[in-house]
Amino acid sequence: MSEKPVSREQRRKAIEQQKKKSNKKEKKTGGSWFKRIFMAVVLIGLIGFICGAGLFAYYASSAPEIDEELLRDPISPTFIAADGKTEIPYMTAENRTYVNYEDIPKVLEDAILATEDNRFYKHSGIDVIRLGGAVIANITGGFGSQGASTITQQVIKNSFLSNDKTLKRKAQEAYLAFQLERKYEKEEIFEMYFNKILMSGNIYGFGTAAEYFYGKPLAELELHEAATLAGMPQSPNGYNPFKNPDRAETRRNVVLSLMEQHGKITKEEKEAAQAIPLEDSLLKKEDRKQTAATGEFTAFMEMVEDEIESLDGDISLDEGLTIYTTLDPTVQKAVNKAMASDLFFDEEVESAMTIVDTKTGGIRAIGAGRDYSGDVRRNYAISRDRVIGSTIKPLIDYGPAIEKMNWSTGQTVVDEPYSYEGGQEIRNVDGEFLGPMTIREALYRSRNIPAVKTLQEVGFKEASKFAKRLGLDFGNVYESAALGSPEKNISTVEMAGAFAAFGNSGEFTEPHTVTKIVFRDGTTEQVVQPEPVQAMKDSTAYMVTDMLRDAVDPNIPGATGKEAAISGLDLAGKTGTSNYTAKEYSDYNLDASSAPDVWFAGYTTDYSISVWSGYPSRKYAIDTASNERLLAQRLFKQVMSDISSSDTAGFKKPESVVEKTIELGSTPLKLASPFTPLYLRKTELFVRGEEPQQVSEKFIQKDLAVPSGLRANVEGNSVNLSWSYSGSQDVAFEVAVNGSTLTTTGDTGYTFNGLEPGTSYTFTVIAFTDDQHSKPASVTVEVAAVEEEPVEEEPVEEEPVEEEPVEEEPVEEEPAEEEPAEEEPAEEEPAEEEPAEEEPAEEEPAEEEPAEEEPAKEEKSEKKDDSASRSGQSENPDENKGNGKQGNENQEKGNGNGNQGKGNGNGNQGKGNGNGNGNENSGNGNGN
Fold first, then answer.
1. Do 872 and 926 form a contact (C-beta atoms < 8 A)?
2. d(C-alpha 488, C-alpha 496), whole Å
3. Calpha distance 643→655 (Å, rounded)
4. Which residues contact 66 (CB under 8 A, 6 or more apart)?
5. Stretch 337-359: mean pLDDT, rounded?
6. What is the pLDDT of residue 886?
7. Catalytic residue IDs
8. Which of 76, 535, 705, 834 qualifies as a cystine partner to 469, CB 3.0-4.6 A?
């Protein structure tokens, strides 16, 4: 029993001891895993280092040899025209003043080192600290997002290597930089950089730049001037103080801050230098020298430089590049000729233009100004400080309306008194209002009120989106933007590019001057031409183009751009004119016809041209009441005529567009009917599937109801006509006798006086309105002749010679309705020829008297009603006979006379029965 406590104690200790051993094993195992991971990382790193070192060695082995001549001399670029072979004579020879190291001012060296490579004198070609920062930036921002090149590396890159950011090039650059540091002193390397770097245009080296920008040697440069030059290599043209003084001053101040940061200058010195206006010490304009080899392509080539600088990557023109451009020297010469022509009405007015390839967006030529020479110049073609006026209407008004709402070119808009939402009245240039019109007419006449209404229908956001797809940033779009006053303006370059999309089935390519760059090795190349995008539907592009064709059509009244028309060339275009503010009119003492800017943008399937005209200062105006307003159109016409060929393709209507003839003014649009007046019929374009199907019934003729119950009551020598009318329309009545109008009346009765014995009267009544009429109702009145007929027997002796009058005798018998005894022998005439000649003896006079009236009786084809005095009579008693009985046996059955008309009332071959004449009027009664 005494052993139990001991056993328990021992057991407890044994358990605790066991736990400790277990913990030790766990700790030992955990440490083992950590060591394994660490060793794996080290191994991977070692393998990576070995592989990297091997790859570095491989790349370094293929690096070019260091050539001192290449190190010290810049390599000018070569520029190629759009044809791919013609070299452009610009910047082919460098402009450089070489400076030895000992002549470099300390202040300029400090400014350069603070900006480009502050640790230059401490590293051996590669700045590891700076490289580490660049590695972090590249990990977070992507490879190539930031460089870590030292001055030594820049010398190597600009002398031997291509510009691509590849591991191979970086490895070779690092290797050669290390080799350069071993072969040359730091001062020599700095001297190479100092004289080799491109400063602007074809100006190389800081020494040349000091003379060019300040007109002084290096030794005389002040701190703020040295800082300005030191900041330029990052963007030689962008920080050019002559061209971009604001940007250059901002860059200068950054350099001054870096100099203070690295202990090169004090804070006081920095602030004093930053306070000096940059332009105060620049060389005066009259003293500046032209540095370009030729001025023929100067403006275009400057745009090439700017475009290269804006490209992603570190591309420098002093690297021996071959640059393929979009320039067409022939087109540029045509522009230069126009800018020097006598189209200008005075020496001060300016103009600018851009010519873009409609299909590719490549800029073929630039007209920067009338005299773009020397270094005191302004490129008006790329300026964005001018209001474009109505040239904007296809871009944010009608283009978006067709694109978004499938409007037809025949969509109706109303030109009427109208105001902005704020209450400001909108006016047309002529101060008039033309009422309803199509958007086609509104556009070619450039009416303001329809444009504002259209933009409001489209919506500001949608209009802005449409414009942005054409490369245009108008900023915020408001109502006034519809007439050319958006928040931001655009240049002739941007406008020409946007209008090109209309001529290219809606496909837009950003205007550009460079297509590709081939680097020094001759094989490495970088394609930089922008990719095309579908900015709008092809239906929108064609429909806008078709409307703008009318704007330049000299045969259309009211077309605003007809001065730009070129015979035989399918082109489209739009004018634009800007306005002064009320304050400017007052301050500059201008009249209402004054305008600061006149524009024209036009295009064919080959070229799109945008032209601006105006004065450098808004104080001077173009007179729109004179031919001065036509300057932009005339410049366009001259250039487009010179560069276009007779086989230029026309604009082709796509399958997505259909043509329909509509009735103008119908709402919604309806197809024209056969009765639509010619002046209201117009063929317009529709997006397929959106064309109208309903035909307008506005002008379709529907006969009015015929007056009924027409009766004639004879009283002495007068006849009282009466009738009734059951139609619902408000009508009037036209009463006529024997084809001659007697009166028009709103009553249903009329009295005719002056009946003459022996005369037949046919009265007709029709109902009518302004644009409709009824068929006639008619009645015939026979007035008996006095008994003096035997006196008129003499003609009987002439009749026997002709047997044919026998056929006409029944016609002459009808008037004798009250003497039925005389009608019966007429049926026996074939058996007794002698009496046949005697029977008409008494009727012959009646035949002669109405003879003169027969044409009047035949003019109208009318149905006859029974009258109170002569029921069932034929309207033409001289030619018709019979009451359903057999007629003359010498004629065909059913005929009342000898004119062979079957069932006719007279001999005019009318079909049917009745008492009317034979002009296709049916009736009941006799068989004529």
1. yes
2. 17
3. 30
4. 160, 176, 179, 180, 183
5. 96
6. 36
7. 116, 390
8. 535
